Amino acid sequence: MSKKYLTNARIILEDEILNDSSLLIEDGKISAINPESAADAEEIDLAGRLLMPGMIDLHCDALEKEVEPRPGVHFPLDFACAQADKRNACAGITTVYHSLSFANEELGVRNNQFAAEIARAVHEWHPHGLVDNRVHCRYEITDETGVPILKELLSERSMHLISMMDHTPGQGQFKNMAAYRDYLTRTYKKTAEEVDAIVERKIESASGAYDRMQELAQAAHAAGISVASHDDDSAERVATMHSIGADISEFPITLEAAKAAKEVGMSTIFGAPNILRGKSQSGSMKAIEAIHEGVADCLCADYTPASLIVAVMRIPELSDLDLPAAVRLVTSNPAKAAKLHDRGSIAVGKRADLIAIGEPGGLPQVSDVWVNGHSAYRVRYDHG
To answer: Of 14, 39, 71, 157, whose CB is crowded by the most CB atoms within 10 A?
Structure first.
């Protein structure tokens, strides 16, 4: 692999920014920062742009929309994977965990068999990807049929993260039956009778949910994979998820839940769209409030990959965090949460997953992307 010598950059390290600096890439890894020599290397002048680690997105369900852009309209899975891959590359996300929901037959593209097909398609596309494409399986804990399918994906190495969801109305994201009915009716065009049947099945299956979660969490940890809870709404809920070994709390709904997760050593994840919009789509805790309170460890793209870099660059304007601390929310912190030890920071020996940032019209945008030392994306703006 040829050497690359990135010059005239503002390099964002874990705790500081190095101005007018350079970096050497060899064999897919960072071999030196401000090297004394870069003989035989291809020089790339970054013209003063910021250089930071490639972003790691632990939760993005945009691939589901690539597969099914309209209800009942499905694209070939390799085509959908290719489009999602390119979207992530140009967004500066060099490691993406595509979030796929496993919820029996109740939610269209999110039913178990279809979701498993998509997971396997991501795995098959991986050798061709511009970025590191991984799978985050979202298990609906009231579904008795999902466990064997998920364990099969785990054995095939087609799963890289698992989260436990409970969308039963009355808690979590759906605080009452009206909110749940509206979601299923609006998003999945369910009739009142179909909603009643779904709720009845959830209630009937709830009794064995804890044992199923525990079984899956143990299998995931044995494979070296992190386990996440989802929409924790109380300290009691966090305690339950911690008892099965959950490592991550995704989208804690209240400050109480977020603080409880931090107290037991769980990493927390909030959505970047929440930062840009200034609110949660379901009326839950604002991500910027979590940052103010010191309970936010990671940001994820959630459903919009392009939102991540803009949110990161805006955080220093909205909070007391400086830019290196904001960058950690999408780099070293998610790397640690997902047990990825080879990436997430600019340091000698780490994978050369890197992105450069331009500012056309004052809007932070990714101009260059390197994944494992290879150029994955490059664009030039007239200004910035």
So the answer is: 14
